[in-house]
Amino acid sequence: MKVSVIIPSYNYADYLAECLDSVLSQSWQDWEAWIIDDGSTDHTWEVAQNYQQKDPRIKYHYQENKGLSNARNTGLSLCNGELIQFLDADDLLSKDKLSLQVAQLEQHSEVAISYCQTWYFKSAAPDALYTDLTLKSNSAHPIIDGKGFEVLQLLIRSNFTTVSSPLIRKSIIEKGVIFPETVSNSEDWYFWLQCALKGNHFQFLSNSLAFTKIRVHGDSMSQQKLKMYYGELQLRNWLNEQIKQLSFSPEKKELLLILNQVQKEKLFKHVMLTGPLWDISHLTKMYQFSDLLQLLKYHKLAREHQKTIL
Q: Are 161 and 192 spatial neighbours (Cβ–Cβ below 8 Å)?
């Protein structure tokens, strides 16, 4: 089974070579890699050209800057593999990741998405690995083998996998699942939610040799906290409408709606309590995810809360 590795890159030339080396070192040899250069102004093109000369399986596509989701969707439109591996240009795959996940999908025809362990690391200390973005190893990787209601419950609580952990069947894409191009973050969370909403089967690969490594550095989008919070609140509004359209029993839909609402209210409260109290642009943004009474209620709580910690 041919694997298409889709690598969006925007001014990540300094990391791209190491990323491509991790693809070249794969024990699974039936692959192609698409570098989608999303309007880079650094030397991404030179790095890509060098690696194309090393291996014709590496392809290069340049486009004007259109954002991460568009770059990934472009890769999906160009690739020829039966299986898809997403890989950001600053991240890495373990040597046997593709081999082990291809074998899993070959043995389990009902499984559409094989996902594995994610490790986080800093460029300055690549051998020190952590289980979460905070680099404190406070979280355990959820293990699931299922679809539908079971997977949605987990995904509503949190995005339990990173974009490069899964290996997925291209048939998912052919059923209309793509990355949303109208949002500015949490794109992969939307993607996995779409997969789950359409009933695709997720299965964890419990093998220590299969993993992805996510680089944590100062310009990581995932560290821009307020932007992330706004994005998640927007996602939860979208998800609320998606749940209403499911063909689940009324009881199951109600449970999912309540779970999503609880998560939204917890986040809204957290952002109000810890965010800038008198920033008009912030309050205007938060008003989009609430009503005036809720905004005033939490603004009062925030004033009281921030007084106690001064």
A: yes
- Cβ pair 112, 174 in contact under 8 A: no
Strand-pair category, 145-146 with 125-130:
unpaired
Closest CA to 204 of 132, 118, 116, 131: 116
Judge contact between 190 and 183, C-beta under 8 A.
yes
**For residue 1, what are its two tokens?**
């089974």
Torsional class of 11: left (φ above 0), alpha (ψ -120 to 50), beta (otherwise)? left
pTM: 0.93
Q: 74-116 pLDDT, tens per residue?
A: 999 999 999 999 999 999 999 999 999 999 999 999 999 999 9
Q: Name residue 94's amino acid.
A: S
Q: Which structure tokens are listed for 226? A: 């307020």
Tokens standing for residue 38: 């999303």
Residue with tokens 């052919």: 174
Give the other-Cβ count within 10 Å of 49's Cβ: 12
Burial (Cβ within 10 Å: 0-12, 13-18, ≥19) of residue 17? middle
Separation between Cα atoms, residue 269 and residue 271, nearest integer Å: 6
> How many whole angstroms from its chain centre is CA 84?
14
Q: Which residues contact 162 (CB under 8 A, 6 or more apart)?
A: 118, 188, 212, 214
Q: 284 CB contacts (<8 Å, ≥6 apart)? A: none
Q: How many CA atoms lie within 13 A of 55 on its CB side?
A: 18
